[in-house]
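User: what does the whole thing look like in 3D?
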Amino acid sequence: AQSVSQHNHHVILSEAASLELGCNYSYGGTVNLFWYVQYPGQHLQLLLKYFSGDPLVKGIKGFEAEFIKSKFSFNLRKPSVQWSDTAEYFCAVNGEETGANNLFFGTGTRLTVIP
Amino acid sequence: GAGVSQTPSNKVTEKGKYVELRCDPISGHTALYWYRQSLGQGPEFLIYFQGTGAADDSGLPNDRFFAVRPEGSVSTLKIQRTERGDSAVYLCASSVSGENTGELFFGEGSRLTVL
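Assistant: Here's the predicted 3D structure for the full assembly of 230 residues, as C-alpha cells:
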C-alpha cells in the first residue's frame, strides 16, 4: 500500500546531540516532500520542503533534510538539538500519485530533548 | 487574527448527535483543507476546497461526513449521527492556492470527543 513511514515513534536526546529522523515513502513518480513540526500546544507548521533541485534542503531553526530518490527517503537532520526542539515531527508527501492538492502524512515522531 | 481559526477548540457530544466544526482560513487563501488526526496518528486527509467547491472529497470516511464552504471563505465540517470512532482532532488548513504550493497553514484543531 502507498504510505509514508516514520520508523522512530519517540526519540529522546540530550541537548547538543545530533538528530536524524527517518522518513520513507512508497509513492511512485514525481513527489514533493515536507517536514512539519508541532510544538507542544501549538499548531502544525512547515519546517522545510523539497520540490526539485538540490536534494539537500535547509529549513528553519537549523534543520535540513536530504532527498535520496533511490532510497525513497527524506530524512530530517539537525547537528545539535536544543531543548526548544522538543516537538512532534511529521513527514508528508504529495505528487503525481497522491494528487498535488493532498498531503499524506506519516504517523509522526515525538522528539524529547533533555536539558 | 492572522492565522487559521477553528471553533470550537473542544467539543464533547453523545453518540448519535450532530456536530458542526467551523474553520476560518487566512484571508485571501483560496484553498481550504480538512484533516482528521486520531491519537498516535498523523493527519489524515478528508476534503479539499478550491473556492466554494469541493475539489476532492475522497477522504471523507462515509456519508455521515459533509463539508461546505458557501462563500469561499469560512468552512463548516458537519458530522451526523456521531460515533465513538469519530473522536479525533479535526484540523483545518488553508493555502494561497491549491496548485502545489507546498505550504499549508494549519489551525489548532477542534478536538471532538464522542461519548
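In plain terms: Chain A has one domain: 4-114. Chain A has a mean pLDDT of 92.
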